[in-house]
Amino acid sequence: MTHAPSVSSFPRELVRAIPKAELHVHLEGTVDAPTLLALCERHGEKPPADDVEGVVDWYKFDGFPMFLDRYFTVLRLLRDPEDFALVAEQYMRTAHEQGVVHVEFHSSATGHILEGGKPWAPIHDGIIAGCSSTADDTDMTWGLIPDISPHLPAADCARAMDEVLAHDLEHIVAIGMGGPADTWTTDDFSPIYDRARSFGIPGVSHAGEHGGADEVRFAVEHFQAIRIQHGIGAMQDPEVVQLLVDREIPCDVCPGSNIALHAVDGAESHPLPRMLDAGITVTLGSDDPPMFQTSVLDEYERAWDWCNLDMTGMHALAQNSLDARLVKR
Ligand code: ADE
Ligand code: ZN
Predict the structure, then answer these.
(1) Best of 182, 264, 288 for a ligand 1 pocket test (most atoms within 8 Å of beta carbon)
(2) CA 279/CA 161 separation, integer angstroms
């Protein structure tokens, strides 16, 4: 699954120099192998493997359920504000090295609050501390997107999101939905989005990753999602494509993730070229980069290779990401 940059004509250094935003990355999914081992040590937990190579190997999945098992293992290891500050700062710096000037971190708020039994305030404050200290010397900006998870009862998610909304909203740019996804239209999560909007906070949502166009339509119509994470399933229905185009709803696409999690059969069948041709606003994200052995620049390289783009195309994708960012002004 490792990407093979050697056969690509991708002008990595030129693309690195383009200012860009990353709008689809999960804080919990940025924990690399050395950091995971350090977290285990810090908390006296047995690591899933003895060394970095072993953890890198453990980060290889045969599909979405196995990925979620790894993802939630990492989520459980993030406990203290210092843990959150460490990973936020570490990823901001990694992104900065790739020309990223703005990061929007999704964080699995309901995973921490409901499944981890952790209060939100120290988590939030740790993330903000890590982002702020990086911003001081990089001039980067950031936003935070607390996610609800559709495998949990909506009433519990509502309670958890109330806890989020009762804390500091300064850097919360949206709420989102992500996680185990096959039943997420069966419970009614719309009131949670309505409530966030009553605080002036819009909604975004994972949709059309493993599911189809109906999921994307549902997120737009019921959650009033102003951006969609992935959205590749929209291509199954021209009406949903038109909905995204007409309402100018960007899709934050993560091609490397889609390959790693078998959301598509392979690079040849990934709909990214068709999404661009259809006029959908696409931004590129790395989703859970060390878990998928990818990076922001690797995602631009995939777009370069798969869509036959030139530097104008690279600039257009970067500009999409800057235009779609949710910066509080
Ligand atoms: N959480 C982290 N990565 C995710 C993905 N690819 N899909 C849904 N939820 C996620
Ligand atoms: Zn995601």
Answers:
(1) 288
(2) 34
